[in-house]
């Protein structure tokens, strides 16, 4: 009888890492050697930072840091327990009330991250016999969250309203029907047509679920998000989830919607039930961020002024920005090797912007994803544009 030797841990690690290297997918993260700002330091060099999601420049803002320090001193370093046992401090609930008021929803609940929020909400809402219809370009956290749900899953073509209607019509059910979409799509920077999505969902008795990770703090009055941008903030059949990183500069995720949604998640959402509550310093910084964006409209004004300028100049130089409508501004290079090489050359010229290839984006559409922020100055953007012009010409992507 032949006895097969089991795979060793080192063998599995080596083989998997080898596959990643062979496919050109091996990642070695760049390390920032200074705070997350419009200009930071990478590999010993000061660079214009176009790689972060720090839309409003809040990650190192003094107002947030002061509030975080005060909450740290008053409330301690950690929550000490999961929220449902002894880890809910009054500051947690105060912030959730503040967030619900900001979002114009009946309630809000904060979870550990945007990724776990999708897992927690989708897993709590969906049951066997339900139908969930998801945009084909939705974020990985939605895809993974749906894998855990027992509902019937269907996909509609990206922002294709005829296809959405077809999928809903072909999959009748007396269970809950849920249409799931990103508010702003993270790779292309386009905005979901929520006005049409909600209308079609209502025709079929479906609820609309919006992951607004890249819309919150960017779109809508005072940064209230994509749902507010389209006027659905008071709708009982629209659920908002999102992150508290990105525009808000800190960490966490949230779900905002009817009051009963919060109660269900407290009782059913596994990431909430089995993870310690946010540290007080995080809660303090988040509270300050929501206050600051409402008190000072210049953050969003600068964000959009910079966005319009940078996009227009890239297009004038001849780059393809793929129809982006938001501060997420892709520059298409085609194949992954070209995008990675362009990223390397940009870094040599003092611009930190990361190349993305398959499977993060489709084959043939490898790009550098740029995100301008409210903190960038015109000098920052002009320096980045000059570097792009030189790299684009050297690589034959734009004309000389």
Largest sheet: 7 strands, mixed
Order of adjacent strands in the largest pleated sheet: 3-9-8-7-6-4-5
Which CATH-level-2 architecture of the largest domain?
3-Layer(aba) Sandwich
| First and last CA, distance | 70 Å
Q: Roughly what is the average pLDDT, rounded to an integer?
A: 96
From N to C, what is the helix and strand string? HEEHHEHEHEHEHEHEEHHHHEHEEEH
Oligomeric state of the chains? single chain
**What is the β-strand count?**
13
What does the radius of gyration come to?
22 Å
Low-confidence stretches: none
CATH class of the largest domain equals Alpha Beta
As for the CATH topology of the largest domain, it is: Aspartate Aminotransferase, domain 2
Which structural class best describes the helix and strand composition? Answer: alpha/beta
In total, how many domains does the architecture comprise? 2
Task: Estimate percent helicity.
Answer: 40-55%
- How many H/I helical runs? 14
Basic shape: globular
Strand content: 15-25%
Keywords: Acyltransferase, Pyridoxal phosphate, Transferase
Family: Belongs to the class-II pyridoxal-phosphate-dependent aminotransferase family.
Domain Aminotransferase class I/classII large: 46-386
Subunit structure: Homodimer.
Structure description:
The protein has 400 residues and is of the alpha/beta class. 42% of the residues lie in helices and 16% in strands. The protein has helices at residues 9-22, 62-75, 90-103, 114-125, 140-147, 161-170, 194-203, 226-229, 259-268, 270-273, 280-295, 298-317, 336-348, 378-394, and strands at 39-42, 45-49, 107-111, 131-135, 152-156, 177-182, 207-211, 238-243, 253-257, 328-334, 351-352, 354-356, 366-371. Strand 7 (207-211), helix 8 (226-229) and strand 8 form a beta-alpha-beta unit. The N and C termini lie far apart (70 Å). Belongs to the class-II pyridoxal-phosphate-dependent aminotransferase family.
């Amino acid at each position: 009888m032949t006895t097969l030797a089991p795979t060793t841990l080192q063998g599995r690690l080596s083989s998997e890492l080898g596959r990643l290297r062979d496919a050109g997918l091996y990642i070695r993260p760049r390390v920032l050697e200074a705070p997350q700002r419009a200009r930071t330091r990478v590999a010993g060099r000061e660079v214009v930072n176009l790689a972060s999601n720090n839309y409003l420049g809040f990650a190192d803002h003094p107002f947030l840091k002061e509030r975080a320090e005060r909450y740290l001193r008053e409330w301690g370093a950690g929550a000490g327990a999961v929220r449902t046992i002894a880890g809910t401090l009054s500051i947690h609930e105060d912030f959730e009330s503040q967030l619900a008021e900001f979002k114009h929803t009946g309630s809000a609940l904060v979870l550990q991250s945007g990724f776990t929020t999708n897992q927690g909400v989708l897993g709590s809402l969906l049951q066997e016999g339900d139908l969930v219809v998801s945009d084909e370009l939705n974020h990985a956290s939605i895809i993974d969250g749906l894998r855990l749900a027992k509902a019937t899953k269907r996909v509609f073509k990206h922002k294709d309203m005829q296809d959405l209607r077809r999928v809903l019509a072909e999959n009748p059910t007396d269970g809950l029907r849920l249409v799931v979409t990103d508010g702003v799509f993270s790779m292309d920077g386009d905005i979901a047509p929520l006005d049409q999505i909600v209308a079609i969902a209502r025709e079929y008795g479906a609820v609309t679920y919006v992951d607004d990770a890249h819309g919150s703090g960017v779109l809508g009055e005072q940064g209230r998000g994509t749902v507010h941008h389209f006027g659905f903030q008071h709708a009982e059949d629209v659920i908002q989830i999102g992150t508290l990183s990105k525009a808000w500069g800190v960490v966490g995720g949230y779900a905002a919607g009817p009051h009963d949604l919060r109660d269900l998640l407290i009782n059913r959402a596994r990431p909430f039930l089995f993870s310690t509550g946010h540290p007080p310093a995080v809660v303090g910084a988040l509270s300050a961020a929501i206050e600051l964006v409402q008190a000072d409209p210049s953050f969003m004004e600068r964000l959009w002024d910079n966005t319009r300028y940078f996009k227009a100049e890239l297009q004038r130089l001849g780059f393809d920005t793929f129809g982006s409508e938001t501060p997420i501004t892709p520059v298409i290079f085609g194949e992954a090797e070209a995008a990675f090489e362009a990223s390397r050359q940009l870094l040599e010229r003092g611009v930190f912007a990361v190349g993305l290839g398959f499977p993060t984006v489709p084959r043939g559409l490898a790009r550098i994803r740029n995100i301008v922020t409210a903190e960038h100055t015109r000098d920052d953007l002009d320096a980045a544009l000059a570097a792009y012009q030189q790299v684009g010409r050297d690589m034959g992507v734009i004309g000389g």
